[in-house]
Amino acid sequence: MNNFITRAISGVIFVAIMVFGLAFNAVAMMFLFSIITGMTVWEYTGLVNERKAVSVNRFITTAAGVYLFIAVAGFCSGFTPSAVFIPYLLTIIYLFISELYLKQEDPINDWAYTMLSQMYIALPFACINMLAFKTSPDDGTVYFDRILPLAVFVFLWLNDTGAYCFGSLLGRHKLFPRISPGKSWEGSIGGALLVMAVAGVAGAYLGKNYDGVLSTVPQWIGLALVVVVFGTWGDLVESLFKRTLGIKDSGNVLPGHGGMLDRFDSSLMAIPAAVIYIYTLTMI
Predict the structure, then answer these.
(1) What pLDDT is attached to residue 139?
(2) Distance of CA 70 to CAs 14, 85, 95, 121, 257, Å?
(3) Is 134 helix (H, G, I), strand (E, B) or coil?
(4) What is the residue-wise DSSP string for 23-77?
(5) Cα–Cα distance between 157 and 224 in angstroms, integer?
(6) Low-confidence ranges of the chain (pLDDT < 70)
(7) Residue 181, helix vs strand vs coil
(8) Residue-level pLDDT at 15
(9) Residue 210: what are its φ and ψ, rounded to 5°?
């Protein structure tokens, strides 16, 4: 009972912080996700450094991930030119060249795990800026769109809730028993139906009044389906990551919810997938 209360309280606080950061303004969003990126990369590097013959530079790797998020935010918001990425590229080059002088047992492992932190964590988080900032076709000004980033996370949360409820009540057939024995097809389908229903209501409510790419109910339902499918894959990818490392939770920063990777695993696949979906709609 105490664990349930702890989990509920920390969950409410987490959602409140996320909604405030995503919905308040662009600065709040950038500040929030800079911290999230840094904490998640730091957690990841700590986990992989426990493996034999792995020695990732935690500070520089984390700093690189945070800088990538800030650089993408600056570029997408129109605040900085493309030259903002040069320091990031120099940092990546340094992380490669430094292995020449460190005399590590297996430098390939260090390179691989370092680059994985950028591709698996930093880049997906940076992609949220591509959802959050839009360019007006009328005068070319850039404005902050809080609806899309918030919708992605609301869909992920609803999917988790729906999958848990439907899975607990109806779950019989395992979705991916080799990696995540607790997930069922019934839970996944139930969660997806819940999210698509909410997305349909959101699309009907916003309609043409939403100044964005999504202007019809089918387009909103399409976004929901993309987020659900790729969010589920993101969850499974992190489960495989933890199973490979032989751990149950990635950390304990969120009481009752595990670590940062545990909390944001679904979004690491859902955010880039949502970006691809939105940009595809603009080209149709």
Answers:
(1) 74
(2) 22, 10, 19, 14, 27
(3) strand
(4) HS-HHHHHHHHHHHHHHHHHHHHHHHTTSTT----HHHHHHHHHHHHHHHHHHHT
(5) 12
(6) 1-4, 138, 207-212, 255-257, 284
(7) strand
(8) 86
(9) -80, 120
Beta bridge partner(s), residue 254: 258
Write down how long the chain is: 284
Note the pLDDT tens digit of each residue in 193-203: 999 999 999 88
Helices of type H across 178-266: 185-206, 217-245, 260-264
How crowded is residue 169: how many other Cβ atoms within 10 Å of its Cβ?
Answer: 10
Strand partners, 133: 144
Q: Residue 125: phi, psi to the nearest 5?
A: -65, -40
Measured between alpha carbons, how far is 202 from 216 in angstroms, rounded to an integer?
10
Q: What angle do CA 43, 45, 50 make, to 5 degrees?
A: 105
User: Alpha carbon of 130 to those of 56, 115, 276: distances in Å?
Assistant: 29, 22, 10
Rounded Cα distance, 142 and 8, in Å: 38
pLDDT of residue 232: 94
